Every structure is written in structure tokens, then in C-alpha cells.
């Protein structure tokens, strides 16, 4: 995931690029991927601290935030009368593919070559980013490929969101975003009321769209400079916001313990969205406490940078390596801590290799495509643009 950049220009001075990279965002990515790893590595945690689903949702919120700002950049570029608008839209889609595609397809190739049957037999659905819909059709979790569902949802969002940002009038943006937030909640409640599969409620884009929309709403607040004004709210309000956010966090964890079929389960992701929105807003405004120091810690920043690779590869490491540890007495019940540590270290090592030698060259190409546009024009208005 590429650092946030702010492009400030004036006709007199020409193009300038001012870095506004926020290390706290990478720190938050690190927390999110650690939540996923704890879930999949079977780390024994109390129910109130299980954050696997919440962590995936945070990646959706971040995607909604970054992609919305990126599309506003594309919108500005498409309005130039002397350049083809479709060229900029094509660069947007190519940039998405360069970010998501290389590790994604490499992992599929690795899974197929190492004989993971669920990859081989479902390769087509995985390759066209339909893992989520295919899993919903199956009605159960195919363990070795289950993590691909969220990547499929993100790719589907990449295709949907340009319609919202580029094709609709700007005045409809906020009502549309609010509509998506409500739609996600209603969809989950309807699924529960009609006894639809839990998987359908979780993995289809209809049940996830509100998380992306929450990120888009934060992007609108950022672009409107309302986030800066939030720091000047009354102290009682600033004190109450984290209390509300953490109340939503713990209430969401408590709801997840309810029996399937309870209608209140549909509120879980909505409560999570409130907490995640507050978390993102806090990071964007700067975290100056000890928590901020932890999120800005170099190992956390690095883990956040390689978090996509960690997510893509970690399940295959579990599938391929865990059986090799059993003869040594290392499983989920015996010497579990050693097993978890080995899986984690191997995951980080492979993801680091992928980041440095495979992903970064494609990201450099992606950045070159973006700079090709931003450095060849000097008459565009001042604005804040973000790439992801």
C-alpha cells in the first residue's frame, strides 16, 4: 500500500509534490493484519478480543478512503479538455491491477504448484475475483482459499465505485454514501430474518459495502477539511468520542457471541464501522499519545507495509507448514506458542521477500504512471490527492 501524497500546485510555481505520508496508517494496517493472523493461527483469545472479522473490515474502510480520494483525482484529470478522459480512467484500473494483481496471482501459482487441491479445482473463480460469490454458492468455508473472498470483494468495489464518484453528480455523493451504509445494515438483517447462510451475509459485496462507504465518508470529511476542524471541538465532545467508539467495539464483540439467527447480529458490522471510522479519523489527525508512538514504531510500520503480502500468503503457509510441525509435537494444543511463532516468522519472511523483490517493482511502475500525469501539467487546481 503506497504512502499518501499531497499534490499542491500553482500556475506560477509549477508542480510540487509534498509528502504527507502518515506512518500511523501503516501502524494501523499492522494491527489489522495481526488481528487476522491471531484468528487464523488459532491464538487463544477471549471472545471480546477476537478481531479477525473486524480487521478485514478495517482494510475495507481504508480502501474506501483511499480509492475515493484517488477517483477524485481521476475526476479532475478527466475534466481537462485537451486530454482523453478514458486514458486517466484506464490508468486508474491499471494502477489497481498493479497493486493487487502480482502477489495475488503469484500466490495462486504457488498454491497450484504445491498441490493445494482447493486452489487447483477452483482456480478459475479465484483468478477472476469471484471467490466470495463462489464461497457463498458453496455455503461453506473452503479453508485453503477462504481468505481470497475479501480480495474479490475489494476488486468488485474497484469496479463499482467509479460509477458512484465519476458518473453521479457531486451533490448526490453524501446521500449515496449514507444509502450504502444503511443498505449494508438492512441487507444483513434481511439475511438473518430469512435464515440465509451466514456466509452470504459476510462475503458478498452487499454485506460489506457499508464498510467501504464509511471510508468514503471519511475521505469526504478529509477533502472538505472538516477533519481539521474536529480538533477544535469542545473538550467534552473530544472526550466522549473515544468512549463511544470503544463502546461500539466491545458491543460488537459481544454481539458476535449471540446464537446464529439473532437479528441483532446484523448490527455487528455497523458498530464496528463506527469504531473503525473513529480510528481512521484519529490516525489522520495525528496520534500523539503512547499509542501513537507504538503505531509509529519501525517494526509496526514495516509490518503494515508488507501487510498485503502477509494476508495473501499466510493461509498457504498454515496449510503447507502446519502438517510438517505435527511430527515434532507442534500443533494447536501442544506447544501452540512455538507453532504460532514459527508460522508468524515464516509468514513475515516470505512476505518481506515478496515486498522487496516482487511487489515494489510493480509499485514503482504504478507510481510512474501517476507521476506521468501529475508532473506534466501545471494548470490544475490546488487539491489533495491520494494513491493507494
Structural write-up:
The chain has one domain (5-222, 231-374). Helices cover 71% and strands 3% of the residues. Strands 1-2 form a two-stranded antiparallel ribbon. The model is unreliable at 1-18 and 376-387 (pLDDT under 50). It has helices at 23-40, 52-78, 85-113, 117-121, 123-127, 131-138, 148-167, 173-193, 198-203, 205-223, 226-230, 235-255, 268-285, 290-295, 298-305, 307-325, 336-374; strands spanning 5-10, 14-19. It has 17 helices and two strands. The chain is mainly α.
Give the helix tally: 17
The count of DSSP E runs of length 2 or more, i.e. the number of strands, is: 2
- Helix/strand/pairing class, anyone? mainly alpha
Q: What value does the average pLDDT take?
A: 87
In what range is the share of β-strand residues? Answer: under 5%
What is the strand arrangement across the widest sheet?
1-2
* CA-based gyration radius: 21 Å
Order of helices and strands: EEHHHHHHHHHHHHHHHHH
Amino acid at each position: 500500500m503506497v504512502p499518501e501524497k499531497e499534490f499542491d500546485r500553482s500556475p506560477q510555481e509549477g508542480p510540487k509534490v509534498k509528502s504527507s505520508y502518515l506512518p500511523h496508517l501503516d501502524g494501523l494496517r499492522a494491527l489489522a493484519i495481526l488481528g487476522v493472523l491471531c484468528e487464523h493461527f488459532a491464538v487463544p483469545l477471549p471472545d471480546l478480543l477476537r478481531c479477525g472479522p473486524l480487521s478485514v473490515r478495517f482494510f475495507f474502510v481504508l480502501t474506501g478512503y483511499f480509492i475515493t480520494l484517488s477517483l477524485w483525482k481521476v475526476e479532475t484529470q478527466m475534466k481537462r479538455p485537451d486530454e482523453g478522459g478514458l486514458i486517466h480512467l484506464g490508468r486508474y484500473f491499471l494502477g489497481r491491477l498493479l497493486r493487487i494483481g502480482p502477489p495475488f496471482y503469484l500466490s495462486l501459482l504457488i498454491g497450484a504448484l504445491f498441490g493445494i487441491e482447493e486452489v487447483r479445482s477452483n482456480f478459475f473463480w479465484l483468478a477472476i475475483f469471484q471467490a466470495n460469490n463462489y464461497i457463498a454458492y458453496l455455503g461453506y468455508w473452503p479453508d485453503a482459499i477462504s481468505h481470497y473472498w475479501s480480495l474479490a470483494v475489494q476488486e468488485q468495489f474497484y469496479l463499482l465505485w467509479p460509477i458512484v464518484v465519476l458518473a453521479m453528480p457531486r451533490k448526490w455523493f453524501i446521500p449515496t454514501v449514507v444509502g450504502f451504509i444503511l443498505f449494508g445494515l438492512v441487507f444483513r438483517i434481511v439475511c438473518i430474518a430469512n435464515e440465509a447462510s451466514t456466509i452470504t451475509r459476510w462475503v458478498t459485496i452487499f454485506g460489506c459495502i457499508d464498510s467501504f462507504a464509511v471510508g468514503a465518508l471519511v475521505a469526504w470529511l478529509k477533502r472538505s477539511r472538516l477533519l481539521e476542524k474536529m480538533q477544535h471541538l469542545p473538550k467534552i465532545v473530544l472526550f466522549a468520542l473515544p468512549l463511544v467508539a470503544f463502546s461500539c467495539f466491545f458491543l460488537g464483540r459481544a454481539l458476535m457471541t449471540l446464537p446464529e439467527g439473532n437479528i441483532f447480529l446484523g448490527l455487528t458490522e455497523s458498530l464496528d464501522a463506527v469504531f473503525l471510522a473513529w480510528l481512521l479519523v484519529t490516525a489522520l489527525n495525528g496520534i500523539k499519545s503512547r499509542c501513537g508512538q507504538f503505531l509509529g514504531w519501525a517494526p509496526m510500520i514495516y509490518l503494515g507495509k508488507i501487510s498485503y503480502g502477509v494476508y495473501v500468503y499466510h493461509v498457504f503457509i498454515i496449510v503447507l507448514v502446519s502438517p510438517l510441525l505435527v511430527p515434532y509435537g507442534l500443533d494447536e494444543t501442544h506447544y501452540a506458542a512455538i507453532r504460532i511463532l514459527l508460522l508468524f516468522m515464516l509468514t513475515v519472511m516470505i512476505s518481506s521477500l515478496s515486498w522487496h523483490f516482487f511487489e515494489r517493482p510493480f509499485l514503482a511502475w504504478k507510481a510512474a504512471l501517476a507521476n506521468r500525469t501529475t508532473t506534466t501539467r501545471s494548470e490544475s487546481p490546488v487539491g489533495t490527492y491520494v494513491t493507494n
